Amino acid sequence: MVHDDQSAIPLQEQQKELLRSQQQNHQTEVPSVIEIMSTMPTEEVTWRYFQDQKRIVDFVLAFNSQTVTDTDQIAYAKRMLFQQNLEQEGLQIETESCQRIHFVKIHVPEQVLSQYCEFLKTKMPMKKLANQDKIIIRDFSIQSMLDWLFCWSLRNSNRIHQDIFKSSEYRLLYEYSRNKPYLFDDHDPNFFTPSVRIAVVNFILKRTSFSDKQKKKKYIGIQRLIEDKVYLDAYPLHDGCTDVKSRCQRTLLLQKWASIKKCVKPQPLDHIKEYFGVNIAMYFAWLDFYTHMLIPAAIAGLICFFYGLFTYGNNWMSREICRDDSTIMCPQCAENCDYWYLNSTCTISKFAHIFDNDMTIFFSVFMSIWATIYLETWKRYSSKIQHRWGITEYSSKLEPPRPQYLARLADVKKSSTFNVVTGTHEPSPPFWTKKFPSFVFSYSVIFLCMLLTIAAVFGIIVYRMSLMTSRNIYGVQGSPLEKLITFPAVTATINLAFSTLISWLYKHVAVYMTNIEYRRTQTEYNESLNLKIYLFEFVNYYSSIFYIALLKGKYPGYPGKYSQLLGLRQEKCSPGGCLMELCIQLAIIMIGKQAIAAVKENVIPFLVQKFKEFRSVLCIRVQDDEQLISYNQWAKDFNLINWNDRTLFKEYLKMVIQYGFITIFVVAFPLGPLFALLNNVLETRLDARKFLLYYKRAVPQRARDLGIWYNIMHVVGKLAVITSACIIAFSSNFIPRMMYKLTVSSTGTHEGFINHTLAYFNVADFEDNVAPLTSKYSNVTICRYSGYRNPPDHEQPYELTTMYWQILAVRVAFVVIYQNLVGFMQIVLAWAIPDVPEWLQDQIKHERYLTNEHIIEQEKLKMLNIASAASNSGKGNEIIVNHRSIPSREVMTAIVHHVPSPDCLSNGGYVERSIR
C-alpha cells in the first residue's frame, strides 16, 4: 500500500509535545463566531474555501473541543499524528477552531490527484482527437427507446432541460497516465472533477496511519478514528447551498430532478454521476429503467383485472354458489362451530373470480416472459451506460484491499495469491484454516437465523389454526365475509409487523458475521452482506405467502378424520380456493411494506436532520460562544445524516423485494405491477430529494453494474416460473375447472362444477368431541365439504376418488410442461437479445482504433525528439525512455516500422466514451 512505509514520531514523545502546544492554544484568544459572521459578505455565508479563498475544501474532518483529560490527550495526539501523515501524503490542511466543533479542512493538490488517479487506474477524459467528429453519438436514455410509441408532439415534454443540464463536448475516456501527457488536458483547472477529488481524498484517509507502530495495521484509517471518538465525522461537502436563487449543481438537481412535479421528466444521469458518483447514478439509472419496464406489466395486470371484473356476473361458480340455498356445509371447527350454508360464501366467490379467471394463466406466462425481457434489455441498456461512463472493464479486483482486511492479515500467517487483473502477488490468509472456517461459521449462523424466522412464521400459522377453534372467529357470531376477509387481513398485518421488527434485529447479526469473513475489497464485503440480508428478507417476507400459495388446504383430511398439527386442525381453503386469501395477504404485505419504507426513509431522515439542527442550536450555551452556527458549508453539512455503504443497499433491497412480489406471486395479485409502478415513480424523486437534502454528500465509488442484485433478480425470475406454475396448478381452480368442463360436463360449461367438488359426509360418523354442541339446524344427517372423496355409502367410504388422482396427475404434468415451455421461451429470448448493441460494438472498435493511432503517432514523435536530442548531444548509443535504457537502434527501428515503443500501449485496451 502507499501508506505502509510512512515514518512517524513515537507516540509518547508526540503526546508531550502536542499537549504543550494544546495548552498554548487554549491561552490564545479565539475570535467569536458572531464577529466572523459580521465581517463576512452576505454571499459568502456558504463558502467552501480555505482562508485564502483560492483552495477549495475537498473533505472535512470534525472533532469536539473538550477539556483536557487523559482520554483527550491520547485522542489529541492521534489527531495531530494523523494530520501530519496526511500532510506527508501531500494533502493540504487548515483547521478552523472558532466554534465548539472544530473542523479540519482538507485540500488535495493537482500533483497528488494525478499520482493517485494513476495508481487507482481512473479513466479520465482525453483531448479531442482528429476525426473524432465522425463517430456517431447516440442517445443512451431510456426515453429514446419509448419515443416511437408516442406522437411527435409529446416528445418535447419528455426531454431534459437542455438549457439547464447542458450536454458537454464528446470525449473519449482512457486510463490516466502521467507518462502520456499528450492524451490528457490535465492542466485545465476543471480536469479533475469534484467527484474525483473526493474519491482520492477518501482513499488516502482510509489508508493513512495514526500511530508509529507501522506493523500494526489496526492503527490505520479514518474509520477507526471515528469509532474511537477521536473524530466526530469525516465527510465531503455538498455543492453550495440549496437557495432557490443559487445556480450551483445541487440546487439545479433539487429543482429540476428531485421534485415530484418532474416525475415524468427524464433523469439527468450524467449530472447525477458527476455529483454523486457512478454507484449512485447506476442505481437511479436502473430504477428509471425498471420503472419504465413496469408500464407494460401494469397494463397487462389491469387487463387481467378488468377481464375478471367485466365477467363478474357471468361466472358459473359464483352463480351456482349464490343460487344454492339448500346445501349445508360441515362445521369448520370442532364443537364450537355450527353448520353453515354454501351460499354464505357468495360474495367471496365473486371477488375470487376477479383474480382467478381464465386470463390468469396468460398473465402468468406474460409476466415470466416480461421478467426475461426486462433482465436482458437491462444488460443491453446498461452496456451503453458502462461505455459512456468508462466502467466497461472495471473489476473489483482492481480495488486495493480494505484496511480492515489488512489489519486481520497482520495477525495470521499469510500465503500469496496471484491477482489476474493487476498481475501481482498479494498476501492472502490460508484458505482451509482461515477463510473456509470463517465462511462456514458465518453462513451457519445466517442459516440458523433463517430457521428461526421460519419457526416464527410457523408460530403465526399455529396461531391461525388455534383461532379456528374460537367462537369469536368461526362461531355463531360474525358473517362469513368477516371470517374469510377480516381474519386473513388481521393475521397478515401481524405478520407484517413481526417481519419488520425481526429484520431490524437480524441486520446487526449479518454485519457481525460479514466482519469475521476475509473479504478483500469493499465490493466483495458489500456483496456478501447484501446476500446475507436478502436471504433473510426473502424468508421473512415470503415464507407466509409461500405457505398460503403452496401448502394451505392441500391436506385437510375430512370431517370424520381431519389432519392435525400439534393437536390443532389444519386450515382449509374456502370453496372458492385459496387464491383470494393469497391476494389479500400479498396486497397487505406488499403495499404495507412500501408504505412503511416510504415513511421510514423520508419522514425519519427529515426528523433526524431537524433534531440535529435543533440540538446544535438550542442545547448549547450561546453566551459562552459554544453555539454551532452554520456560517459555512462544512458547519451546515455537519448536521446532515451520515452516508455509508448501507444507505444505498437499503434502496436496492427494497426494490428487489418488490420485484419478487410482482414476479413470484403476481398470479395472485395482477394489480401488483401497477402499485409498484406508482410507488417507483414517487420513489425516484423522493430518494433524490433525500440524498440531496438530508444526507451528507456520498463519496463517489466505481461500480460496473448492479453487482449481486442482478444475479438475485435472475434467480428470482427462474423461481417465479416454478412458483407461478404451482400456484395455478395447486392453489387456483383452473385445472379442476378445465377437467370438469372437458371430461364431466355434458353441456361443455362450468355449470354444476361446485357441486362436483363437494363430497358428502354422514354426521353420524363424527368422532367424539367434534360434532357441534348446539346447532340452529335441525334434522341434519348429511353435510358437504370440499374434496374428491367417496360418499359414506360407498364400499370404501371417504377414500380419495379416481377423479382426485386424475386431477393430481394433470396438475403435476401442467407444472412440468409450463416450466419447460416458459423456460425454453426465456432461453430463446436471452439468446435473441444481444447484451451489447451491434452499433455500440462498432463504435467501440472505431474509438479504440482512433486512440491507438493517436498514441502511436505521439510515441513516434516522442522517440524522434529523443533520438534527435541524443544525436545532437553525441550520445547515440543509449536513450532513456520512461526510466528505461533503450538502445538508439531499437528506437529508430520502431520509428521506421511505425511500431510504438514497449510502453506505448501498456495501459491501452478498451477505450471509453464520455460526455464532458
Keywords:
disordered N terminus; about 900 residues; four-stranded antiparallel beta sheet; 28 helices; transmembrane helix; Anoctamin; alpha+beta; disordered C terminus; three-stranded antiparallel beta sheet; about 55% helix; transmembrane
Tell me what you see in this structure.
Strand 2 and strand 3 form a beta hairpin. The protein has three domains: 145 residues, no CATH class; 469 residues, no CATH class; 29 residues, no CATH class. The protein has a four-stranded antiparallel β-sheet. Strands 4-5-19 form a three-stranded antiparallel β-sheet. A two-stranded antiparallel ribbon has the order 7-8. The two termini are 32 Å apart. It is built from 28 helices and 19 strands. Helices cover 54% and strands 8% of the residues.
Write the layout of secondary structure elements.
Elements lengths: L10 H17 L5 H6 L20 E6 L5 H19 L3 E5 L4 E7 L2 H10 L3 E3 L17 H4 L23 E6 L18 H14 L14 H6 L5 E3 L13 H8 L12 H8 L1 H33 L5 H8 L4 E2 L10 E2 L4 H10 L4 H30 L13 H7 L5 E5 L4 E5 L2 H37 L3 H4 L5 H36 L6 H30 L5 E2 L2 E2 L1 E2 L2 E2 L9 H40 L14 H6 L6 H20 L7 H22 L14 H24 L2 H11 L8 H5 E5 L19 E5 L15 H31 L5 H36 L4 E4 L2 E4 H9 L15 E4 L1
Antiparallel strand pairs: 1-3, 1-6, 2-3, 4-5, 5-19, 7-8, 9-10, 11-12, 13-14, 15-16, 17-18
Helix pairs in contact: 1-3, 9-10, 10-13, 10-22, 11-12, 13-23, 13-26, 15-17, 15-18, 17-18, 17-19, 18-19, 18-21, 18-23, 19-22, 21-22, 21-23, 23-26, 27-28
